């Protein structure tokens, strides 16, 4: 009798448990898992979005992909973008968090200013920056530069400057979130360890590199992984500011996938690109994850 | 313990399977062909205009058609921005809730016909007088004797100009130059440069400011063709790097980078706000000037060494072949392009119907434009004008060639060499 009642309780708990997770699971299955499986299936098909046709073509899309100069260009552009965004974002957000975590005067105001771009609509942000970055003397930034005798470039229409502009723009837009995460870690650093280092005579430089940075390393690792993945998946900034131009100089991989799928309607080829990007991000994340024990001394 | 885990996995998989089947059934029900319409019918029409007056005019046709059929139509107009039009439309048409009727750009016509997304309109057009629509106008929208979309707009490009700025710069107006037979690309270049030097305002803004990207063909075609060049031809010749085309593009490039009189790439100065003296427009754009703070006029496109070569922007309306109301939508397309509807639209979208074009009413159909302007800049150009080049692979051609065209927009660009590269891209697709 007692065993029967226990079983009934277990079953009831299981039903309640399933009821709780079903909405989340349904969302995951339909909006993540099935699209992910579809991408793998599409990547081995010659599939045209406009014509609605699909024919199995094995690994042909991957063969074409590795012979496509725009694929290598988009890969290089993605690496340049990440190499610009990730260090700038990490360094500035960490320094700002250390400054703001110190409780100095005006920190609340600065914190608000830094977080403002995060809550601003990406479209509004891009439209404003497109206006500010106009070439010639029409753009406010170039007008400001002209006051000090510098002739500013046509920021979004010259190859090198276009990439630099979107990198800086992206860093400014997302800096606030990382500052917030780092501040949480800074405020949670054990005060006794830092105080002991002070008593032992540690100077600012030693204190930062030997004490604070190692203590913050798990957070740095987490923020680095999230920022790298985010930078590899950048789309909105490119779409709204440069449309991948000029001459494809800001054509990053996700934008190239969009280009192939929704402008050239080659969904099969675009899916092959998406599979490659998925594998690259997977490998990079795995490398960082497994190397965390070497970098962060108290990771288990 | 292990058995319990296995049970859990089995339960999870069963749940997922049930969810998958339920959703598939729901989708399948939604996709089912609806029975013959009775009562209220919902329809969606995709356009690239968001002008409330133009939408109201289109809505009046839908309501007229509904009254004739004795049904109610609850119509939704979906305005998709021009630069994104083909991309978003294609995506929607492959989904379950694509528009029932949609506008089609001339450049994308062959691709859309080939895709099978456009319904055959032969039956719906039976009431038409075939002689009234010029066969040239339907050529682009037909295949193997079947019509897949009907042009509602055969609208030539012309120059919209700011009279006040021409007066301020001490110049005759483009209309005056045209009446003297001196309105050519050299005069146009001179006027643009003079205005920039004397007033500080840009001489020319490309069509909608998109002449360096989404509307590059619209921007360059009038110059290139009047120089005797072209982009490509229907018989498979690539002409963008011919001497005539290079000379024409060089003229425009010199205006941007030597004369510095054209609103450059990335600059947001706008003709309609008074920040440029000239732009290229069509009659549907004139309503934007109703509340302009300056006097304005319209003139034909300048002529080139090969004389006048008007360029026509053509747009058609078609029915979604896989739509829930494909037959009704086809009938609505025919209604929206019948003689009465076309006459009502002619002041905004000039038609391909001879009876309307040749009528006195057409010349006075747009209240903002004089009869003479309508005759000189619109009616005369429709007779001799040509549409922009199109191709079944146009989406690919547009995207790939744009990356090469980008190289033009530098001060020291070698125009001939860059157009050779563009020609190589075209040659990949044009056969």
UniProtKB/TrEMBL annotation, chain A:
Entries under Gene3D superfamilies matching the protein: MetI-like
Domain of life: Bacteria
InterPro entries: ABC_transporter_permease, MetI-like, MetI-like_sf
PROSITE patterns: ABC_TM1
One matching Pfam family: BPD_transp_1
GO cellular component terms, A-Z: plasma membrane
GO BP, one annotated term: transmembrane transport
Membrane topology: Multi-pass membrane protein
Localization per record: Cell membrane
Main subcellular location of this protein, as a coarse class: membrane
Domain ABC transmembrane type-1: 75-288
Membrane-spanning residues: 20-42, 79-101, 113-132, 175-194, 215-235, 269-290
Keywords for this protein: Cell membrane, Membrane, Transmembrane, Transmembrane helix, Transport
Protein family (similarity comment): Belongs to the binding-protein-dependent transport system permease family.
PANTHER family referenced in this protein's UniProt entry, alphabetically: ABC TRANSPORTER PERMEASE PROTEIN (PTHR30193), INNER MEMBRANE ABC TRANSPORTER PERMEASE PROTEIN YCJO (PTHR30193:SF37)
UniProt protein name: Sugar ABC transporter permease
Organism for this UniProt entry: Sphaerochaeta halotolerans
UniProtKB/TrEMBL annotation, chain B:
Pfam families in UniProt: SBP_bac_8 (PF13416)
Endpoints of the signal sequence: 1-28
GO CC annotation terms, alphabetical: periplasmic space
Protein keywords: Signal
Cell location: Periplasm
UniProt key word Transmembrane: no
Domain of life: Bacteria
Database matches in PANTHER family: ARABINOSE-BINDING PROTEIN-RELATED, DIACETYLCHITOBIOSE BINDING PROTEIN DASA
Sequence similarity: Belongs to the bacterial solute-binding protein 1 family.
Designated name of the protein: Sugar ABC transporter substrate-binding protein
Lineage: Bacteria, Pseudomonadati, Spirochaetota, Spirochaetia, Spirochaetales
């Amino acid at each position: 009798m007692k065993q029967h009642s226990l079983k009934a309780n277990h079953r009831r708990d299981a039903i309640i448990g399933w009821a709780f997770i079903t909405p989340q699971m349904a969302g995951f299955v339909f909006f993540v898992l099935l699209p992910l499986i579809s991408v793998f299936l599409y990547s081995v098909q010659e599939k045209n979005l406009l014509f609605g046709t699909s024919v199995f073509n094995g690994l042909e899309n991957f063969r074409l992909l590795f012979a496509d100069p725009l694929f290598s260009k988009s890969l290089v552009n993605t690496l340049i973008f990440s190499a610009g965004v990730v260090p700038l974002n990490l360094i500035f957000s960490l320094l700002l968090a250390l400054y703001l975590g110190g409780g100095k005067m005006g920190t609340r105001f600065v914190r608000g200013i830094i977080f403002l771009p995060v809550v601003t609509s990406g479209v509004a942000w891009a439209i404003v920056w497109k206006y500010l970055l106009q070439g010639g003397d029409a753009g406010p930034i170039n007008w400001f530069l002209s006051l000090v005798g510098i002739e500013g470039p046509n920021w979004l229409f010259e190859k090198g400057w276009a990439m630099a502009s979107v990198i800086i723009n992206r860093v400014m837009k997302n800096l606030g979130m990382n500052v917030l995460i780092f501040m949480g870690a800074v405020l949670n650093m054990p005060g006794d360890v830092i105080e002991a280092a002070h008593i032992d005579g540690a100077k600012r430089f030693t204190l930062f590199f030997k004490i604070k940075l190692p203590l913050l390393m798990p957070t740095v690792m987490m923020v680095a992984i999230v920022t790298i993945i985010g930078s590899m998946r950048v789309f909105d900034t490119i779409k709204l500011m440069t449309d991948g131009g000029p001459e494809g100089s800001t054509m990053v991989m996700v934008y190239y996938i969009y280009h192939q799928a929704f402008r050239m309607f080659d969904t099969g080829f675009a899916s092959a690109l998406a599979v490659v990007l998925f594998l690259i991000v997977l490998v990079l994340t795995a490398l960082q994850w497994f190397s965390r024990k070497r970098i962060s001394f108290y990771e288990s | 313990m292990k058995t319990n885990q296995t049970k859990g996995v089995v339960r999870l998989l069963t749940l997922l399977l049930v969810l998958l089947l339920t959703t598939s059934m729901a989708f399948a029900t939604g996709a089912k062909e609806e029975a013959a319409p009775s009562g209220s019918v919902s329809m969606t029409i995709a356009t690239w205009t968001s002008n409330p007056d133009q939408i109201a005019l289109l809505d009046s046709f839908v309501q007229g058609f509904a009254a004739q059929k004795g049904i109610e139509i609850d119509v939704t107009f979906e305005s998709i921005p021009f630069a994104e039009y083909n991309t978003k439309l294609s995506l929607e048409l492959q989904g379950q809730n694509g528009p029932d009727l949609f506008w089609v750009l001339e450049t994308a016509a062959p691709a859309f016909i080939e895709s099978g997304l456009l319904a055959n309109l032969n039956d719906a057009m039976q009431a038409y007088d075939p002689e009234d629509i010029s066969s040239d106008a339907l050529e682009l929208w037909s295949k193997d004797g079947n019509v897949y979309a009907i042009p509602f707009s055969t609208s030539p490009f012309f120059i919209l100009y700011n009279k006040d700025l021409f007066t301020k710069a001490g110049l005759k107006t483009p209309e005056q130059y045209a009446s003297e037979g001196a309105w050519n690309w050299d005069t146009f270049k001179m006027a643009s440069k003079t205005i920039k030097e004397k007033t500080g305002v840009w001489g020319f803004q490309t069509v909608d400011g998109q002449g360096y990207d989404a509307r590059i063909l619209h921007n360059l075609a009038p110059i290139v063709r009047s120089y005797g060049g072209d982009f490509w031809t229907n018989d498979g010749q690539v002409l963008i790097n011919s001497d005539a085309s290079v000379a024409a593009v060089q003229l425009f490039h010199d205006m941007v980078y030597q004369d510095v009189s054209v609103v450059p790439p990335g600059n947001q100065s706008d003709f309609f706000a008074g920040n440029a003296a000239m732009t290229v427009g069509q009659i549907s754009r004139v309503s934007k000037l109703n509340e302009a703070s300056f006097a304005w006029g319209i003139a034909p496109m300048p002529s080139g060494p090969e004389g006048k070569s008007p360029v026509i922007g053509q747009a058609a309306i078609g029915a979604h072949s896989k739509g829930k109301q494909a037959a009704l939508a086809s009938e609505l397309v025919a209604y929206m392009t019948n003689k009465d509807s076309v006459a009502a639209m002619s002041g905004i979208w000039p038609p391909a119907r001879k009876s309307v074009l040749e009528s006195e009413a057409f010349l006075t159909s747009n209240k903002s434009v004089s009869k003479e302007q309508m005759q000189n800049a619109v009616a005369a150009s429709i007779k001799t004008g040509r549409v922009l080049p199109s191709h079944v692979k146009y989406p690919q051609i547009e995207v790939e060639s744009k990356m090469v065209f980008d190289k033009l927009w530098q001060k020291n660009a070698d125009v001939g060499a860059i157009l050779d590269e563009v020609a190589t891209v075209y040659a990949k697709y044009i056969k």
